[in-house]
Structure formats: structure tokens, C-alpha cells
Amino acid sequence: MERRVGRALVRPRVLIVGAGLAGLGAAQRLLRRGGRHLGGVRVLEATGRAGGRIRSGKLRGKVIEIGAHWIHGPSKENPVFQLASEHGLLDEAAMSEENQQVEIGGHPLGPSACFSSRGQLLSPDILDSMGLLFFALLEEAREFVHAAKVPVPSVGEYLKEAIARKVREWSDDEETKRLKLAVLNLFFKLECCVSGTHSLDLVALGPFGEYTMLPGLDCTFPNGYEGLIDCLMASLPKGTVQFDKPVKTVHWNSSCLEEAPAGRTFGVQVECEDGEKFFADHVIVTVPLGFLKEHGETFFNPPLPSRKVAAVEKLGFGTNNKIFVEFEQPFWEPDCQVVEVAWDGESPLAEPPADLEAIWYQKIAGFVVLHPAERYGHILCGFIAGKEAEFMETLTDAEVLSALTEVFRRATGNPQLAPPRSILRSKWYSEPYTKGSYSYVAVDSSGDDIDALAQPLHEGTSDSKPPQVLFAGEATHRTFYSTTHGALLSGWREADRLLDIYDMSESPHAAL
Ligand code: 6YU
């Protein structure tokens, strides 16, 4: 990987901004494959920990996931599954061939307890029939990826128009219709969590089907997702990652032609908030799209070209938060996988409530029961997306706990139901180096914007020169955005881009 500068051979130096899965994956790949040909690989991380949006925590001594929860599509093609299997981080059931072949297409599984807000346990039939309808329509919405024209701009509008037509065919009494619509509204909230958006009206219909689901029954890490990060960190030479180093500005394109201590001229200079400067030939930027939306204008000098600015602005980045509550005794059956509350009077066809702050908790899509009970005790994990999730972050634990106790009491019809004993929440919107949860393809954007975001910036802006600023992170993967495997693959993609330029793979057949 040497490059001739004057009469000397120089070895390229690479900086990586961000120690999430994309950044660590890129660092490991470069070091393993580029080895001694490299002049150094250093990762600058703003916070005091590695992992970014992979973060495990503890609630009453039980490991819980504050960020990424499942390996989506754990099967051969999924590099996160492969890595986790190689490091022995998964249980036997997750690794079985049978598990890897299940095709669930994103549908929720297992028995659930769905209560109405009037305190009735709803019959599974209504849940099943509305689930079938919703997921069939969602499948239809994916098919527009091949269409020349879309009937409406968003997934939300498409679903609502189709549901309005269905409702006209329903011959049920008014009460049943009302209940069916409340249940359908639950599926809208669930899909908001999946897409990481406030409303499905913000999610673009045309590109919706470009997101690709891998086979395999989604699985979790028994000892925490962060175990994967620990393995990656252990494989890097000590000191590769520098913590508490928030990057302020990436100077590129000879905007800061300073002499580094070694007497070499570098094309890139990375300036940290604390004033320290790092010099490199290439920088791989893996900061979340949420951070770029807020700081993109000042983060690069010279600024990003207009095509990239447009991509940053147009692509969506929303909030999906988790609320873990732990009970002394469960109020659900032992085999129950999800507890849900369908709010009386809600409907996807009605206007959303104007006062979201007063009834923010009604946006909770459902509570996943953490299994097995022998490991977790009695913990529910509530999922909430959008502006209500962002508002929830402004409340105290006591306020959230009290609101949820009220919800569970109304739903079960038991005003004496004991409140949860403990609570732990994520606050992804308030995280200054994340500013939300993950990306989605918003109305007026497309997969081309994802590709534009992923495009490297070349010295002199001419593609014939080597790339100086490269981009990785989940939001740069056209078909696996919003996932951990998308993040890891994007880091590998940019590492390979550099390895290929210098034609320097030492061990091209290495696993990483
Ligand atoms: C998955 C899942 N999952 C739940 C929740 C969240 C996410 N995801 P990182 O942010 O990790 O790293 C960047 C680093 O940069 C970070 O450390 C920063 O501190 C640092 N940084 C920033 N600014 C800096 C600066 N200035 N200087 C220096 N450093 C700086 N994914 O596969 N399964 O179950 C979930 C979930 C609550 C928040 C998730 C899940 C998303 C992943 O966590 C995420 O993509 C990756 O970890 C990102 O890694 P990275 O390296 O890119 O960034 C049709 C259609 C639908 C599309 N969606 C369907 C899929 C649904 C996604 N599932 C999500 C569900 C859950 C529950």
C-alpha cells in the first residue's frame, strides 16, 4: 500500500471517525488485510465507550439492550450473525439450521396479550385477522419498487387508502369495526418503530421494497449485543481507539496543508473539539445521519457538495426508544411474547391526536416480554417511536413509571395492579452524537440518496484522484440501512475501497 511521494515511499495513514460497528469493522478489516503496508489506523470516538448504537445495560442485574435488540435475519449472508457465531455469542437454538431457514418477512411471532384500553382482553381472532390484513398490505406496498409510478407518495397514505376501501366492505356492527380499527392502529405504531419514524406518512412508498430482509428467525445475544463489540475491540491493537475525542471539523481537499510532525504533507486534517489535530491520507466518517443533519454544515471544510447535502437533508432519521419495566409478578401468561394495548377510538383513518404530550404513552406500540423468565425475571420492553418518543425523553423516570402503571391498570381492568419495581429507558434523541435511532427512506428521497451519501469525496473533487473522505454507517447501505449488518457491511465496503486502491490485500482470503 505504498505511494511514492517525491523519492520516498510513504505508507497511507487512515483515520476513522466513530467507534460503532461500522467504524470498528472498517478498522479491523484494514489492519487485518492491509497490515504492515499501512502507516497507521486510528479511530476517534466522541464518547467514552465503543459500540455506538449497540449498547447493553443492566436492569436489576439482568442484561438488557438499550440500542440494537435482534440480529435481523440471522443466516449465512448476515455478517453479524457469522461473527457472533464464530465468537460463540449465540445460543444453540439461534445457530440451528432450522432457525436460519425461517422466513418471517418481518412479521411478529408468538402469542400476544392484546388488551383494549377499556380493560378487556381481546380475542386472538381479531388480532390475527387485522395482522393478516396489515401485513398483506405492507407486502403490496413493497412491490412499488419496480413500478414506474406510485399512486401516493407515502407508505402511510397507501395503507390508509387500502384500509378505507376494506372498511366499506365490513359488515360488522359499529363496536366491532371500532375495535378492528383500534387494533389496526397498533400495527401502524409497530411499523413506525420498525421504520424508526414518527408516521408512516413520512416513509416513501416507491423505495420501500428496496430494504431487504434476510432469512432466519430474529435472535438476541444471551449475554448482550455488546459482547460483539468487546470481541472487535479485543482484536484491535491497544490504543487504536481514542475515546472522548469528539471530532469538530474534517478539513479535506488541501484546505489545511499543514506539515505533520513526521515531515509529511497529508491531504486530510481532523480537528477535535479539544483542539487536538490528527493528520491522515484518508478519513472514514461513520457518524450517524442524525449527527450529520445537525452538524453537516460545519463538520466539513470545504463543505459537502450539494448532492450530498441534499441526501443528508432528504433521507429520514427518526427516534425509536425502549422503556424497560420490571415487575415482581407478571400479569401476563408464561408463554406470552408481547403485551399490547389497543386504545379505544383510535384509528389509522382518523387524524392523529393534536396534544401528543398529554397522551404520549398511547404511541407505545407494544411491550415485548423478555424470555426466558429464568434469565430475566419479569421484564417488559416497550417500544415507542416518533415525537412522542422524543417527548418521553424529557420526562423523569417517576413520571414515565406512573403513566405506565396507569396504562397497565386500565388495560387489565385491575386498579390495584402493583406498579413495576424498576424502570430503565433509552434516550436516543438526546444523545448528542446520535440524535435519533436510525435512518429510513423519507418521502421525496430514494435509494439514490443513500448511494449519494455513501460516495467518497476525492482530492480536487476529481474521481481520478484517491478518495480523501469516505462514508460508512448504517444510513449508507442501500438495502440494509437501519441495521447492524448494514453498518458492518458499510465499514467493510469502505475499508475494501482503500485496500483496492492501493492493491494491498495481504490476506484477501482472511475472514474479515
Ligand atoms: C439491528 C435491531 N434495533 C434499536 C434502537 C436503536 C438502533 N438498530 P453508531 O451510531 O453505532 O456509531 C457511530 C459512532 O460515531 C458512535 O459511537 C458515536 O458516538 C460516534 N460519533 C458521532 N459523532 C462523532 C464525532 N463528532 N466525533 C467522533 N465520534 C462521533 N439494528 O440490526 N437490530 O434490533 C436494532 C435498534 C433503539 C437506537 C437499533 C437495530 C440499529 C443499529 O443499532 C444501528 O444500525 C447500528 O448499530 C449503527 O452502527 P453505526 O456504526 O452505523 O453507527 C422496509 C423497511 C424498514 C427498515 N427498517 C427495518 C429494520 C428495523 C431496524 N430494527 C431496529 C430495531 C431495533 C429494536
From TrEMBL:
This is L-amino-acid oxidase. Belongs to the flavin monoamine oxidase family. FIG1 subfamily. Its EC number is 1.4.3.2. It is an enzyme of class 1 (oxidoreductase). One of its GO terms (molecular function) is L-amino-acid oxidase activity. The keyword Membrane does not apply. Its cofactor is FAD. The keyword Nucleus does not apply. It is found in: Cytoplasm. GO terms for biological process: positive regulation of spermidine biosynthetic process; putrescine biosynthetic process; putrescine catabolic process; spermidine catabolic process; spermine catabolic process. Residues 21-499 form the Amine oxidase domain. One of its GO terms (cellular component) is cytoplasm. Pfam families: Amino_oxidase (PF01593). Its main location: cytoplasm.
